[in-house]
Amino acid sequence: MTLVTTSFLSRSLFRCLAMSAAVGFTLAACAGAPSNPVASNDPALSASRWELTSWTGHTVPHGDNGEPVILNFNVQNGLGRVSGRAGCNQFSAPYSVRAAGRLSIVEAVTTRMACPPPAMHFEADFLDKLQAVNHYQIAGPVLEMQTLDGQTLSFYAREKPSASAKIKFVYVAAQKAPCSAGVMRTTCLQIRERKEDPWQLWYGNIEGFHFEPGIGYRLRILEEPVVNPPADASSIKWTLDMIVEQEVVKK
């Protein structure tokens, strides 16, 4: 998919110029250079996929109110790049770890998909704010980024899937149903993607999900293709990413 440069540079340039005397930025840095900063090695950043969970003064999308905001950090040939989803569009931007706990992210490029105005405004603010990140710290599964204007963006570590994985939302019924697995009779999960859809049997497993009878779930899962699956196995793999909601269902 073609990436196009976003239009956030003017705001970022103004902000950088205003702060340059205090923090020692150069004009080149404010303009988004270097385009390919060298990243020192911090395996903790690239070990997980990071989901935005809180941001001062903002309602963070998590599934019910929009696509979750995801960051993936990677280093190839000494060059750092962070990519993911910004609430509406996919994005990618160079980054560098200048020293322990010191992080710089420069201007992002994004896909250009139209979304409702609230999502577009959130995305524009988020991508602009990434360029103001100056410090970060990781404590267990939590990543916190601090910006030059004193805001904090908090992220939670999620499993880092393959590049081919996609996010999917499914409902899981509170009771399993009889099904056949080869010559064996057993019970299977019942799933559907929309509340108005009929229940369908799910013969496979959802890795990381522990089903409890009597509880209905809405799950966010990662769906990945399985290369050369056995003849009697599924060609896709589901992994639990997040339990979005659950409720006790009366019989």
Characterize this entry briefly.
Helices cover 15% and strands 43% of the residues.
Write out key terms for the chains shown.
seven-stranded mixed sheet; disordered N terminus; Lipocalin; 2 domains; ten-stranded antiparallel sheet; 251 residues; elongated; mainly beta; 17 strands
Can you walk through the features of this model?
This protein is mainly β and 251 residues long. The protein has 2 domains: 4-158, Beta Barrel (Lipocalin); 166-248. Helices cover 15% and strands 43% of the residues. Strand 8 (133-139) and strand 9 form a beta hairpin. The protein is elongated. Residues 1-39 have low confidence and may be disordered.
Any idea what the shape is? elongated
Helix-strand makeup class: mainly beta
Estimate nothing, just give the exact number of structural domains: 2
Oligomeric state, counting identical vs distinct chains: single chain
Poorly predicted sequence stretches spanning 5 or more consecutive residues: 1-39
CATH topology of the largest domain: Lipocalin
CATH class of the largest domain: Mainly Beta
Question: What is the ordering of alpha helices and beta strands?
Answer: EHHHEEEEEEHEEEEEEEEEE
Write the layout of secondary structure elements.
Layout: E1 4-5, H1 9-23, H2 27-30, H3 43-46, E2 49-55, E3 70-76, E4 79-85, E5 90-99, E6 102-105, E7 109-110, H4 117-130, E8 133-139, E9 142-147, E10 152-158, E11 166-172, E12 177-181, E13 184-192, E14 200-202, E15 206-207, E16 215-225, E17 236-248
Parallel strand pairs: 15-17
Antiparallel strand pairs: 1-7, 2-3, 2-10, 3-4, 4-5, 5-6, 5-7, 8-9, 9-10, 11-13, 11-16, 12-13, 13-14, 16-17
